[in-house]
Each structure stands twice: as C-alpha cells, then as structure tokens.
User: Which sequence fits this backbone?
C-alpha cells in the first residue's frame, strides 16, 4: 500500500462508527498493558531501587513526576494535532478527541505540579518558585482549565470546537515552553532534561545522567502512562461520540414532534 | 513491607498517595460517565425505534 493510500485509510477513522468499532476492539489491550506497566514500574521503583546519594528516598517520586509531566505536555500536542484536523478537514471525531483528552491533561499537569511541589520542598527548601519551567507548567494548567470551560460554555458544538481549537493553538506556545523553558533560560531551580536526552540515556554525556538503576523502572512507568493516555482518549472519545449522537437523536425527535 | 524511606517518608508517601488518587479518580469518573452515556444512548435509540 502506498503512503497516500495509507494516509487515506487513516481518514476512515473519522467515521464515528468505524472509530467506535476499532476502539472497542483494541481497548482491552491498552487497559491491561497500561495498568500492568504502571503497577510493575511503580512497584519496581518504590520497593527495589536504592536511595539516591543526594536526594535520598525522594528520588522515588521520579516514577510519577516525570511520566505525568511528559504526558501533560504531549496531551496538549495531541489536542493541537486533532484541533488542526478539525479546523482543516472538519472531522467531528477529531474535535471530540481533543475535548476528551483535555481532562486527562488536567490530571497529568496537576500530578506533575503537586509531586513537583512536594519534591521541591525538601530539595529546594520551597514548595514553589517562579522558575521558568514551573511557571510555564502552571500557565499550561490554566490553559487546560480554560479549554474545558470554553467547551462547556458554548452550546453549539461546532462553534465550541472552532473556538477551543484556536485556544489550543495559542496554548501550544506554553506546552512547548514547558518542555524547553530550561533550555531557553538558565535561571531557575528546575534541572535541565536528564531523561529524555539521548546522551543521558546512552551515556554519551556525563552531565546529570539518570542512572540505569532508576531509568529502567522509569521507562516502564513512562510506557504505562503513554498507553493509559491512549486507552483513556479512545474510551472518552467514544463517550463524546455517543453523547453527541444522543443530542442529535433528541433534536430529531423534537423536530419530528 | 514498606522500604525505609528515612526522613523523607512523608514526602514520598504523600506524592504516591496524591498521584494514585488522582489517576484512579480519572479512570473511575471516565468509566462511570462512559457507562451512563452508553445506557442513555441505548434508551433513546430504543424509544425512537418504537415510535418509528
């Protein structure tokens, strides 16, 4: 099959029936594997890894903080992609997928902020600092809240999808800043990337490298969070599709008298 | 059973508690709403097919 044909095959999932049928088939896999990975990664990290020589047992927070922060950013990028599909091709499923993903992003951002604050208190001596990465994450969290509020505030679903898509484009600046803030500005308490950097993982560089003892359970947790995100997005998009169908059926019933 | 977390015991355990509660709440609310909406859709579809 050519690339063009494959790309065209992808648009078949813009059909709600096709999307629901496929997601129902693959969802059990994503639920089981994601929860298994998270449980294995957390148990391994919590019970079977040593304390860090500098940070003591607080290093165990990494297994929740890093995957949650990663998903908080990538969830918004997924919403950006689906919002662009809505704006360009007007596929309802893509707009509903963005809507379904937002509450997941809220929870992931909240976990990253809370675990960061709890971790920061003993390590930095403060729960919060107006550090570039922390601040951009807080703004990203506020964008998530605004995005959900905008969907709820507008009755016409197409208008809501249009306006939230534009909001998503604007908020993407902060999603990207959340990831790269530490590279743009050197001041601040938060360390630079030490996990999602090829050199840090392979050992090609020695700066702030995460030891493999911590990295392997962390990797399993990250895989678990990614798969859980996919499972939740598929499930919640299915719910949004059905909720939209209920509205359409009730409208048709009212018109029919 | 719980490893010795030293002086940071409260810090680590509270991080895990907060995160696990939020994750479980997200999954439970998503599934509960999903089931409710699915049941509602089936009810509306049945009613409409009965009424022609």
Assistant:
């Amino acid at each position: 099959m050519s690339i063009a044909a494959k790309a065209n095959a992808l648009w078949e999932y813009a059909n709600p029936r096709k999307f629901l049928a496929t997601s129902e088939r693959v969802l059990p896999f994503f639920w089981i594997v994601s929860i298994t990975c998270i449980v294995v990664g957390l148990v391994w990290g919590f019970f079977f890894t040593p304390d860090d020589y500098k940070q003591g047992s607080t290093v165990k927070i990494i297994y929740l903080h890093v995957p949650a922060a990663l998903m908080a950013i990538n969830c918004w990028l997924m919403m950006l992609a689906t919002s662009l599909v809505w704006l360009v091709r007007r596929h309802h499923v893509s707009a509903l997928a963005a809507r379904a993903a937002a509450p997941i992003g809220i929870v992931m951002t909240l976990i990253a902020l809370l675990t960061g604050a709890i971790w920061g208190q003993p390590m930095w001596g403060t729960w919060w600092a107006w550090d570039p990465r922390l601040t951009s994450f807080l703004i990203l969290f506020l964008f998530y809240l605004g995005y959900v509020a905008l969907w709820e505030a507008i009755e016409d679903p197409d208008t809501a999808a249009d306006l939230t898509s534009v909001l998503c484009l604007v908020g993407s600046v902060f999603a990207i800043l959340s990831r790269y803030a530490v590279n743009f500005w050197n001041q601040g308490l938060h360390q630079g990337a030490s996990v999602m950097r090829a050199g840090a993982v392979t050992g090609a560089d020695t700066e702030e490298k995460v030891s493999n003892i911590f990295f392997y359970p962390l990797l399993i947790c990250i895989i678990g969070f990614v798969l859980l995100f996919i499972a939740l997005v598929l499930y919640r998009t299915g719910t949004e599709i059905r909720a939209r169908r209920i509205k359409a059926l009730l409208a048709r019933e009212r018109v029919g008298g | 059973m719980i490893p010795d977390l030293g002086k940071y015991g409260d810090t680590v355990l509270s991080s895990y508690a907060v995160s696990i509660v939020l994750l479980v709440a997200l999954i439970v609310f998503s599934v509960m709403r999903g089931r409710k909406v699915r049941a509602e859709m089936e009810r509306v579809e049945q009613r409409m097919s009965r009424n022609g």
